[in-house]
C-alpha cells in the first residue's frame, strides 16, 4: 500500500472545452487526490458513432504520449467517452493504468446493484454500448439499453429541458427493465447523476466518478501495470504523414 496522493489524468477525447469543464467538476467532486483535465486538440466536437471514435483516437493518444514524456507524474488515465475509444492503444503507450468511463461505470454498477439499465444519448450508439457490455463481461447484469435521443452537445447546456428529457428516459428504463440502477451512457451526463439519483430513488452511476474512484484505488495498492503481450509498448517504427509526431520511442 502507498500513501502517495494520486493524480488522475482525465482526457476528453472530443474537442469541446465546455464539456471538459463539466467532466472535471464531476471528477473533482469524488477525487481524493488531484485531477489533471485534458481536452483533445484534434478530432470531432462530439463522439456519436464509429467514425467519430476512430478519428478521435490520434488526438487522445497524443495527449497521453505528451503526458508520459512530460514532467507531470500521473497515476492513471481516464478516457471520458462512453465508447472507450482507443482504450487498448492507450494501454500500450501508458505506463500507468488506463480505464474508459464505460468500463468503469459497468464495473461500479455491478458492485452497487444486481441489474442495471444503460441510458445513453442517441440510438445509433446503442450497438457500441452492447459490444462493450459483452467485451467487459457485463451483458448478463445489464437489464436493457436505452437512448434519450439527445445529442452529446446538448449536455453542455444548463437547460432544464435536458435534465427532464434524460430523467424521463431513465424512468422509462427502470420501468421497462425492472432494474435496480441506471448507468449513464455519456461522460457529458456526469454532472446530472446526483440530481437524477435523488429524483429516481435508485443509484445513478456515471463513469467519470466511477473511473476516478477505481483508478485511485488501483494507485493505492501500488500494483504496476503489466507491459507484456498486447499491452507491451508499441514497436518503434517510422510513421509518415499527419501522425508522424506520434512515432514511438522507448527513450
From TrEMBL:
InterPro entries named in the record: Asp/Glu/hydantoin_racemase, Hydantoin_racemase-like, Iso_Racemase_Enz_sf
Family: Belongs to the HyuE racemase family.
Pfam name, any one: Asp_Glu_race
Stated name of the protein: Asp/Glu racemase
Any one GO molecular-function label of the UniProt entry: amino-acid racemase activity
Amino acid at each position: 500500500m502507498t500513501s502517495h496522493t494520486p493524480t488522475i489524468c482525465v482526457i476528453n477525447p472530443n474537442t469541446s472545452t465546455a464539456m471538459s469543464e463539466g467532466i472535471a467538476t464531476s471528477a473533482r467532486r469524488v477525487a481524493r487526490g488531484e485531477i489533471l483535465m485534458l481536452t483533445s486538440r484534434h478530432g470531432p466536437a462530439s463522439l456519436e458513432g464509429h467514425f467519430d471514435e476512430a478519428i478521435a483516437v490520434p488526438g487522445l493518444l497524443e495527449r497521453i504520449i505528451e503526458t508520459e514524456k512530460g514532467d507531470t507524474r500521473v497515476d492513471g488515465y481516464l478516457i471520458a467517452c462512453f465508447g472507450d475509444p482507443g482504450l487498448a492503444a492507450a494501454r500500450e503507450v501508458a505506463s500507468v493504468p488506463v480505464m474508459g468511463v464505460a468500463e468503469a461505470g459497468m464495473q461500479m454498477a455491478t458492485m452497487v446493484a444486481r441489474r442495471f439499465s444503460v441510458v445513453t444519448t442517441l440510438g445509433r450508439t446503442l450497438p457500441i454500448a452492447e459490444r462493450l457490455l459483452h467485451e467487459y463481461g457485463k451483458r448478463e447484469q445489464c437489464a436493457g439499453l436505452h437512448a434519450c435521443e439527445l445529442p452529446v452537445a446538448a449536455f453542455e447546456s444548463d437547460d432544464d429541458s435536458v435534465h427532464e428529457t434524460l430523467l424521463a428516459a431513465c424512468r422509462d428504463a427502470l420501468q421497462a427493465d425492472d432494474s435496480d440502477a441506471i448507468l449513464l451512457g455519456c461522460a457529458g451526463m456526469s454532472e446530472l447523476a446526483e440530481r437524477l439519483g435523488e429524483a429516481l430513488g435508485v443509484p445513478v452511476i456515471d463513469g467519470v466518478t466511477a473511473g476516478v474512484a477505481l483508478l485511485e484505488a488501483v494507485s493505492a495498492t501500488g500494483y504496476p501495470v503489466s507491459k507484456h503481450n498486447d499491452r507491451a509498448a508499441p514497436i518503434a517504427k517510422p510513421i509518415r504523414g499527419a501522425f508522424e509526431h506520434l512515432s514511438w520511442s522507448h527513450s
